[in-house]
Amino acid sequence: MNAALSPVLPDASADPLDFSLADQLPTRAAGRGRLLIGAPPRDGRPGLLFVPGAYHGAWCYAHYLAYFAAAGLACAALDVRGHGALLQDAAFPSATITDLGQDVADALDALERPAVVVGHSMGALPVLLAARQRPVAGIVLLAPSPPGDLPGAQALPPVPGAVPRAAPDATEIRARFLATTPDRDVGAVSRRLRAESPQVLNDRYLLRVAIGAAPIGAPGLCLEAGLDTHDRHPPGQDRAIARRFGFSHAVLARQPHCMMYADNWQASAGAILEWHRAQFG
After folding, report:
1. Which of 17, 181, 188, 243 has the fewest Cβ atoms surrounding its Cβ within 10 A?
2. What's the DSSP call for residue 166?
3. What is the residue range of the signal peptide feature (predicted)?
């Protein structure tokens, strides 16, 4: 790697659960969503658009925004409707993953040129839907939820569909999101998570979002979290998603589900940067 182009990494002792940068960055409206701008375009290389998964907002990519801005790349993260600082209105409980796909498409329109779209967990599905509607420079999937039409995909028990589903508690954050110690203070995450639309969750749990097997027409990377939970990410599922769309696949053995703010989050950021440079210079 060219040292002159290497990103300036945060202090290794910095708290990975400190998301305060997200409160300082400029924002921009994008349809029903909101963009958090890490860095504007600087050259002809495609920038990155980060899309969060269930319960999360653009804040969860605070470290990535600093990292990729330092690497000289345009980058932004998206609050889809009802997340981050956005209002959850009366229509929020009926929001679907198709609606979130429209939010991603609107964000791509606001960026005005094709970007590499990065989707985490449930956020992989609206990213893939948007890539069927808009030109994208590339796709990166982080511990992705499976498309409903992926052969062998496993459904999960649905949640009640009348009201928003409360965000996971601290115990689940520690065990499933971070694979960390049971006494770790995760209040910085708990305070920022939002309730989720039950229709969004059931779209994912009941495998209601079909993407189709046709090529997307852009290069892609699927990063699997080696410490992910097997009830939602059984062995072989992430590799099957990558194979279905012709994407590269890699396992980050020591990373949990929320690799973008887990300890050693730099491992996933570095894998994305290495792939981006291989594709676009």
Report:
1. 181
2. P
3. none
Q: Which domain holds residue 27?
A: 3-280
HSE-up (13 A, CA, CB side) for residue 250: 16
For the four alpha carbons of 96, 101, 102 and 107, in that order, the dihedral sign comes to: positive
Q: Give the strand pairing for 75-79 and 48-51.
A: parallel
pLDDT of residue 5: 39
Flag whether pLDDT at 278 surpasses 80: yes
Into how many domains does the chain fold? 1
In this predicted structure, the answer to whether residue 161 has a pLDDT above a threshold of 70 is yes
What is the 3-class SS of 25-42, one letter each residue?
CCEEEECCEEEEEEECCC
> Which residues are within 8 A (CB) of 111 and not within 5 positions of it... i.e. 6 or more apart?
35, 47, 49, 76
What distance in Å separates the CA atoms of residue 184 and residue 4, rounded to the nearest whole number? 37
Question: What pLDDT digit, counting tens, does each position of 42-66 carry?
Answer: 999 999 999 999 999 999 999 999 9
Chain centroid to Cα 144, Å, comes to 8
Q: What is the CATH number of the domain that holds 149?
A: 3.40.50.1820
Whether the model pTM is above 0.90? yes
